[in-house]
Amino acid sequence: MLVCDKCGAGINEGSKFCPQCGDPVTEADRVTVPVAESQIANVEISFGESSSANFTKAVQICKNIPSYSVTGEGKQAQHKISLPITEVDLIINLYELVGSWKSSQMLINRHAATKKDLTYYGVGCYRNRQKSYKPEQFCFGEKEYEANIWGCKRLNMPINEWGGDWLDYGEFDKSGAWHFDKDRIKHELELTLKENELCPILDRKRVLETLEKLPDSINPKSDRNWQYRTSYEEVNGDYKEVAVGVKPVIKKINIYVVGGFKPIWDIESAGNHSGNERVMKVNLQLDDETPKQKRSSKTKKKSGSLSSVWWIVAGIVVLYLLFK
User: Fold this and answer.
1) What is the tens place of the pLDDT at every residue in 230-253?
2) 230 near 176, Cβ under 8 Å?
3) For 76, 152, 243, 301, which has the most beta carbons within 10 A of its beta carbon?
4) Residue in 83, 95, 26 with CA at minimum distance from that of residue 58
């Protein structure tokens, strides 16, 4: 994993320069220590003397903050405050007053930052969470397309009742059991965890514990929390409903959620049948299907084809005799 030692931006493996600041990639950019599990970021704002009408107001706000300090004198004076990122609204208000001055600077965890870091990504989502009617449910998704078991909808890994997305990371074995590719799932999670790491609510440790709690393999024939995801495909000349993946029973999936809060999603089921009824309709078309079964199907097709030919020939003979 690469993180720029100058600006803190993520860098793709193989890149020679930071995509944000252009700093050449060195060993200093390689992170060997895991991202902090759950640590509230610290924000520092500093600014110098200014003739702006906002200067007096900015100083008045800073004087109410315990961390406020002034170094230097006269025109060389530097005003500085430090706040946890949970005070994001206050930070934004202050930065809007001083952010355009040449003497001002904002650091988040000692890395240069802009207002965009406070209004987009994980922090912007956190602000919306704090205003929501049910903050905890907000993180697990209030809408159908946001439902997730991770506790963060910005990880972009929803758990849909129709399956798909990360639920397709895996494969079937010959018995019909689905095996998740957890290494690939973890890789995708780590990328979005890094993008949203400034959110004070995001708990990386809990997200990875949720992945660990998710079964390594699932067999919908015996696990009523899951069903087969099916599709009509051509098999040996016929279109059949075959299993192409798995999908959860959305009302039961919160058993994998880590922590005391259990989200509830008010989503109507796509079908009224039970999981067992669905399984009975699924034809997995496994590789160990017996040759006898296959030959029987082919024999029926040949018999039907020959019968049609004889009827056509008989019709031609009758017409010939009538008009002779």
Assistant:
1) 888 877 888 888 888 999 988 888
2) no
3) 152
4) 95
Structure confidence at residue 268 as a pLDDT band (50, 70, 90): low
Q: Are 127 and 198 in contact (CB under 8 A)?
A: no
Note down the domain range covering 86.
34-119
CATH of the domain at 111: 3.30.70
Sign of the C-alpha dihedral computed for residues 187, 120, 122 and 133 taken in this order? negative
Q: Which residues pair with 240 in a beta bridge?
A: 233
Domain assignment present for residue 42? The answer is yes
Q: How many domains does the chain have?
A: 3
Burial 196-206 (b: 16+ CB within 10 A, else e): bbbbbbbbbeb
How many angstroms separate the first and last alpha carbons of the chain? 88
Q: Which pLDDT band holds residue 312 (cuts at 50, 70, 90)?
A: confident
User: How far apart (Å, rounded) are the C-alpha atoms in residues 256 and 278?
Assistant: 23
Q: How far apart are CA 296 and CA 301, in angstroms?
A: 9
pLDDT per residue as tens digits for the range 282-298: 445 544 444 444 444 44
Distance CA 56, CA 53 (A): 7
